[in-house]
């Protein structure tokens, strides 16, 4: 379906819901990625190896399943909208607290708590949006929602480029309070999910009862999302360090910002393109094509030889990485039962994150084994994960166009 047609399918209220869900994930990612740009600065201030600072990324990713389960269950019981607003305020407050960490240990502890809050946002925002729009708009909206992640990366790069020399790494975390303002927009413009409203008067089952017969699906989705997260974090988290250490480009320079901007423009284009394409060719096929097309782009991405080719490589690697990801919000929500749609997609996603949380540290270790060669570490990682993701997707189910709110009717 052409992109303008997908947008025209949404009424005024639905557009506000999609915008709020998009901004929630954008600003969540913005707060997460701020740390990736200041790893070297934090290591220097606390006089520790950079590998120890990367544990902040590991702890954030490892904590996200806790938040996905807690906030997802709350959203299934009390509604998507109020829980989403509380979660956004919480991760914003924890981000600001990082600015005042007196030691690396305290900073790592705060990043763990931030991960709990961050883990709640994606599942709730995605279910709120997907349950509020027509089925034939899901592919495009899925790509749009997931594009919030690279947009957050871009905003973090922009903030780092414009502000870090003036306010330092601690000041960047204070800027991380801005997402809390989104709550005002949600409170005024975004209604509750109509699917949740329809089900709220029905008897509530516990998580174990709701998941009866769906545990194999959960395990499959968890493994699939582990591959997805190794794919995205493997191409993004250590990229600023690669730019600084391998390419010898200063963190706050215009050149570093432009490379990151091209990377994120590619991610935006990929998410929208493959998300929409999945409406025509299917969710699994779109994911597999995007994942496998990442492999021939790797040499240009890491070994381009000039800034022009490195920039082109950064653009196209993210077209493929986030192209595959652009299908995820609708794919997971369509596969999930109504009773646990606030919980299952986000929890499976974040449990996959837990399995993939070692990505940045593993890449750093692999690079150190070859004298700091991040190009080799990131290239080998992405090639292997692209194949793994394609195989897991091919082996799994698909429920494109499934009606929401009909589980009980079908029973």
From TrEMBL:
<dbReference type="Pfam" id="PF07690">
    <property type="entry name" value="MFS_1"/>
</dbReference>
<dbReference type="InterPro" id="IPR020846">
    <property type="entry name" value="MFS_dom"/>
</dbReference>
<feature type="transmembrane region" description="Helical">
    <location>
        <begin position="18"/>
        <end position="43"/>
    </location>
</feature>
<keyword id="KW-0812">Transmembrane</keyword>
<feature type="domain" description="Major facilitator superfamily (MFS) profile">
    <location>
        <begin position="17"/>
        <end position="398"/>
    </location>
</feature>
<dbReference type="GO" id="GO:0046943">
    <property type="term" value="F:carboxylic acid transmembrane transporter activity"/>
</dbReference>
<feature type="transmembrane region" description="Helical">
    <location>
        <begin position="167"/>
        <end position="186"/>
    </location>
</feature>
<feature type="transmembrane region" description="Helical">
    <location>
        <begin position="374"/>
        <end position="396"/>
    </location>
</feature>
<dbReference type="InterPro" id="IPR036259">
    <property type="entry name" value="MFS_trans_sf"/>
</dbReference>
<feature type="transmembrane region" description="Helical">
    <location>
        <begin position="84"/>
        <end position="106"/>
    </location>
</feature>
<keyword id="KW-0472">Membrane</keyword>
<feature type="transmembrane region" description="Helical">
    <location>
        <begin position="217"/>
        <end position="234"/>
    </location>
</feature>
<dbReference type="GO" id="GO:0005886">
    <property type="term" value="C:plasma membrane"/>
</dbReference>
<feature type="transmembrane region" description="Helical">
    <location>
        <begin position="286"/>
        <end position="303"/>
    </location>
</feature>
<feature type="transmembrane region" description="Helical">
    <location>
        <begin position="254"/>
        <end position="274"/>
    </location>
</feature>
<dbReference type="InterPro" id="IPR005829">
    <property type="entry name" value="Sugar_transporter_CS"/>
</dbReference>
<keyword id="KW-1133">Transmembrane helix</keyword>
<protein>
    <submittedName>
        <fullName>MFS transporter</fullName>
    </submittedName>
</protein>
<dbReference type="InterPro" id="IPR011701">
    <property type="entry name" value="MFS"/>
</dbReference>
<feature type="transmembrane region" description="Helical">
    <location>
        <begin position="55"/>
        <end position="72"/>
    </location>
</feature>
């Amino acid at each position: 379906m052409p992109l303008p047609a997908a947008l025209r399918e949404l009424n005024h209220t639905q557009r506000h819901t999609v915008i709020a869900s998009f901004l929630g994930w954008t600003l969540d990612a913005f707060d997460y990625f701020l740390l990736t740009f200041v790893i070297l600065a934090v290591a220097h201030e606390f006089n520790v190896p950079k590998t120890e600072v990367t544990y902040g990324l590991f702890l954030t990713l490892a904590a996200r399943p806790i938040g996905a389960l807690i906030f997802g269950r709350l959203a299934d019981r009390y509604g998507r909208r109020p829980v989403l607003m509380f979660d956004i305020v919480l991760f914003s407050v924890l981000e600001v607290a990082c600015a005042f960490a007196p030691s690396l240990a305290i900073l790592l502890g705060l990043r763990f708590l931030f991960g709990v809050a961050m883990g709640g946002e994606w599942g709730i925002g995605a279910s709120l949006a997907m349950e509020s729009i027509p089925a034939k708009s899901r592919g495009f909206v899925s790509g749009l929602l997931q594009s919030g992640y690279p947009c957050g990366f871009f905003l973090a790069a922009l903030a780092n480029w414009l502000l870090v020399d003036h306010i330092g790494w601690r000041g960047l975390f204070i800027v991380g309070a801005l997402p809390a303002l989104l709550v005002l927009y949600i409170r005024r413009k975004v209604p509750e999910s109509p699917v949740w409203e329809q089900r709220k008067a029905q008897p509530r089952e516990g998580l174990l009862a709701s998941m009866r017969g769906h545990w194999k699906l959960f395990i499959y989705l968890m493994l699939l999302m582990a591959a997805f997260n190794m794919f995205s974090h493997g191409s993004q988290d250590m990229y600023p360090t690669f730019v600084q250490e391998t390419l010898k480009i200063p963190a706050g320079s215009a050149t570093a910002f432009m490379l990151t901007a091209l990377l994120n423009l590619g991610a935006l284009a990929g998410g929208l393109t493959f998300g929409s394409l999945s409406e025509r060719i299917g969710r699994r096929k779109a994911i597999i094509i995007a994942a496998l097309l990442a492999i021939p782009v790797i040499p240009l991405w890491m070994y381009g030889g000039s800034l022009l080719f490195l920039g082109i490589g950064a653009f196209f690697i993210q077209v493929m990485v986030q192209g595959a990801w652009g299908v995820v919000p609708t794919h997971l929500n369509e596969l999930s039962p109504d009773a646990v749609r606030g919980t299952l997609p986000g929890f499976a996603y974040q449990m996959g994150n837990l399995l993939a949380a070692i990505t940045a540290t593993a890449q750093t270790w692999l690079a150190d084994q070859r004298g700091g060669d991040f190009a080799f570490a990131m290239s080998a990682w992405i090639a292997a994960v692209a194949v793994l993701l394609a195989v897991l997707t091919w082996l799994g189910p698909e429920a494109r166009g499934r009606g929401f709110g009909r589980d009980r009717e079908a029973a």
